[in-house]
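hey
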């Protein structure tokens, strides 16, 4: 069958439309016409906390609210925090020589709304970063927050879904946090988070009958501090042997549970201990916001020798 069109331009246009039909069917009309352009993306893939992706649907944030968190935030830590909020590095597939190439890209995220001129203390940063991350969570994510000074203080003993109402409650509590005391609650806060994560009675999603899925991501724990664990109301540093006992207890509590512990250190802090906890915590991430200033101090101390 043949067609005759008096106008060659019209015949060409019809030919192109006939050719594009199968492509639209397989690729999706929205790719051409912009349909579903207002569809919300999966926020769990975009949300970050100090540069670490929040992949799990059950998250426990643990933050240091001790007196030292009221100290001024050093510029190196502040700049590193800015970088983590605004720049992400993605590894591309390995090249022929077996080395993975990295590319950096700037991403405008929730962190852009932080007023950095108001971030003056370490607690200011801890609160702002936590609030921005909580704001970005969707209702499929369940969370709670634990603060600690001389003891662990959960804002909520069980996980709650990240609904608008619950997020507002958490944010209001976080905004009202005040620094006080020593870091005697360092390990008790970690153990409290593991108690919540391993006690199925405290997981309200399971109690309400919602089935767990394989892509649930397990639990992500984020532990933040600016110092070292203490004893006797913050008057003494915890002895090494006592720290070792607590680390073994954490390892035992974790067992084969699908729980990952990530650690974040602000300013000067026990880098060795935080790295160890992250490794014990099923190869979690360790974020060092005081790395630059610590290196500078190390160089100065070497020069004095």
């Amino acid at each position: 069958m043949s067609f005759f069109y008096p106008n060659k331009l019209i015949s060409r246009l019809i030919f192109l439309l006939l050719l594009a039909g199968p492509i639209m069917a397989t690729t999706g009309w929205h790719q051409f016409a912009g349909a579903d352009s207002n569809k919300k993306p999966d926020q769990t893939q975009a949300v970050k906390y100090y540069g670490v992706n929040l992949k799990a649907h059950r998250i426990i944030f643990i933050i240091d609210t001790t007196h030292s968190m009221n100290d001024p935030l050093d510029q190196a830590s502040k700049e590193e925090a800015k970088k983590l909020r605004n720049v992400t590095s993605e590894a591309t597939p390995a090249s022929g020589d077996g080395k993975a190439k990295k590319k950096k890209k700037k991403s405008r995220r929730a962190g852009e709304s932080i007023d950095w001129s108001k971030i003056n203390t370490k607690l200011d940063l801890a609160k702002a970063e936590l609030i921005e991350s909580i704001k970005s969570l969707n209702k499929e994510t369940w969370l709670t927050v634990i603060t600690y000074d001389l003891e662990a203080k959960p804002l909520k003993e069980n996980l709650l879904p990240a609904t608008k109402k619950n997020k507002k409650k958490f944010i209001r509590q976080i905004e009202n946090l005040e620094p006080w005391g020593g870091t005697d609650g360092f390990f008790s806060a970690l153990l409290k988070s593991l108690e919540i994560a391993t006690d199925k009675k405290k997981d309200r999603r399971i109690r309400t009958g919602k089935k767990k899925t394989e892509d649930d991501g397990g639990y992500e724990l984020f532990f933040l501090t600016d110092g070292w664990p203490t004893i006797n109301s913050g008057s003494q540093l915890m002895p090494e042997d006592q720290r070792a006992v607590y680390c073994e207890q954490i390892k035992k509590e974790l067992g084969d549970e699908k729980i990952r512990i990530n650690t974040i250190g602000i300013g000067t802090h026990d880098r060795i201990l935080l790295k160890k906890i992250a490794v014990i915590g099923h190869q979690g991430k360790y974020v060092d916001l005081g790395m630059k200033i610590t290196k500078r101090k190390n160089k100065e101390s070497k020069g004095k020798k």
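Confidence is low (pLDDT under 50) at residues 1-5, 23-45, 87-111, 291-305. The chain has two domains: 1-39, 43-304.
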